[in-house]
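Take a look at the protein record below and flag anything odd:
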Amino acid sequence: MSKYQKLLNVALATALATGALVSAAPSLTQAEEVQVLAPTFSDVKNIPSHHFYEAVTSLASRGIIKGYEDGTFKPNQVISREHAAKIMALALDLDVKNVTDPEFKDVNEENPYYVYIAALVKEGVIKGFEDKTFKPKETLTRAQMSQMIVLGFGFDEVKLAADLPFTDVNDKQWSANYIQTLYSNEITTGATATTFEPKKLVTRGQMASFIFRSENKIGGIVAEDFGNLTETSYTAGAALTEGKTLSDVQSFTAEWYDHAGNVVGKGKLTDKLAKEYPTATQLSMPFDAKFNYITDGYWTVEGNFTGEPTKVKFTVTYKTGETTSVENTRIATGDIEAQDFGLVSGTMYSAGAGLTDNKTLSDVESLTAEWYDLAGNVLGKGTLTDKLAKEFPTATQLSMPFDPAFDYATDGYWTAEGKFTGEPAKVKFTVKYKNGKEASIENTRTVSGGIVAQDFGFVSGTMYSAGAGLTENKTLSDVATLTAEWFDEAGTVLGKGTLTDKLAKEFPTATQLSMPFDPAFDYATDGIWAVEGKFTGVPTKVKFTVTYKNGKQASVENTKK
C-alpha cells in the first residue's frame, strides 16, 4: 500500500460526540436556550425510549441545536416554525449573511430568525403562505416538516404509491408526495405503523431525528490534513461523513490548484482502495511530479503536478446519486530573515537576507531591498534581477551592496533606484514567492558616530578654550549640526555656540575641533561659530552635542579641572 494513503475507519458516533455548543433559537413556550458546556442533557439519555438521543447529540455537538440553562433539552416540547427554520438553515450550512428579503409581512430584519428564514426562502426550501405571511410563531406540523426536509436535503420527490402504509395520507393532501418521499427513503416509519399524523405538531426531539436521518442518507465530505511531505511533495486528505464509506462511493476526484487558481494536477480515485478497504472513511492523495501514480494504482492522474499547491477540491459522487465537494486549503510557505549588515569600506555598506522554509532563489518571483537612513528617508532601492537565480538556483542567501560609486548596471544582479548616498541604518527586504506568499524583514544596524571631550582650560586674559573629538571614523564632513553650551559652577548658561559649515569646508576630514570662550572675541569675523549669550564669567563645563548626517546624535560634557 502507498505510504501516502491514510486510511482510518472512524466510527461516526465518535465524531458526533465532539464539539462545542453554540446558539440556537428559543422554542414557542419556554425560556430562551443558553449555551452549555457539553452536548449532554439531563433529559436525553442513551436508552431505548429516547430514540432521539443520537440525533440530538450529533446536532448539539455541531452547534445546530442547544439546551437550556437547567441542563435540559426538552425533546418533547413542540417547535415553532421560526425555530425550525433556524435549525434547518444551520444543518444545511446555508449562507445567512448574503440573503435577500423574503417579503413576508410578519418577518422583518429585527426578527432574530430573519436571516435563517430568508436563507431557506432563497434556496427554495420554504415559501410561506398565500397571504404573504410566514407565521413564525406558529408551531410546525409534521406535514410542513416533511416538505422542509425533502426540499432542504434535495431528495428526489416520490409520487404517492400503494406501498405507503399510512391510512391518513391520500392524494388529496398537498403533503402526500413529501411524506411518501420520506417513507421511501426510510426517513420515517410514521407516528404509528399505519398513520403519519400530518397535522400533529413536531417536537424538538423529532425535528432533530428527521434532520439526522436525512443527513445519513445524503452523505457528505470534509477536508482533513494538507501539508508538505518533502520540499516538492505534498499530501491532502478528505473524510466521508454521515456514515458513508468507500464502498458507498461511485466516483471521487481531487483537483489541485496553485495560489493563482491554476489547475496543477487532477486525480481520480480508482476502485483499488475501495476493494482493499471498503469500510474506510478517510483517504488522501499525494502531489508529486516524481511519484509513480501508475505503479501505486490508487489514482489516475492528469497534469504535471509541479509547483506548490495551495488548494485541493475534493468531489465525491455517492452510489445514491448525491454529489458533494469540499475545498481543502493550506497556507503557502516562504519567509525571509535578516543577516549581516555593516560597513565594508569607504562609502560601501552591505546587507544580507536569507530565504527560509526550504525556499531557494528558484522559488522567488520578485525581491526588493529598500534602504533608509536613521531619519527614515529612503536612500535607495534595489530590485533583484534573475541573474543570481540563474547562476545559483539553489542558493538561500543573498546580499546587496550600498555605494554611490558602485556600478550596479555592470554588476547585473540588482537594478537600482536612487542616489545611494549617506549612511544607511535600515534595509527592508521584501520577497514574493512563486507560490504567492509574500514576506518582508527589516535589517537594521546601529549607526556610528560619537564624541569625546578633549582639552579644557584657561588661555589668557578672559579667554578659555574647550575641545571635542569625533569618534567612530567620523569627520566634520559627516556632521549635520554641532553645538557647545557653556556653564559656570552654579550651572548657569554663560553662552552657546553653533558650529557653522566654514570649518567643514576648510577641513572636511578633520576629527577635532575647539571653541574659544571670551567676551572680547570677534566670533562674527572668525566665522567658525555662531554664538548666543554674553560669554562672561568663569566657565567650568561645556556640553558638546553633535548630530551626524546619518541621524545619530551624541553628546559629551567637558569639565575644567
Summary: Confidence is low (pLDDT under 50) at residues 1-38. The radius of gyration is 40 Å. Residues 256 and 312 are 4 Å apart (CA to CA).
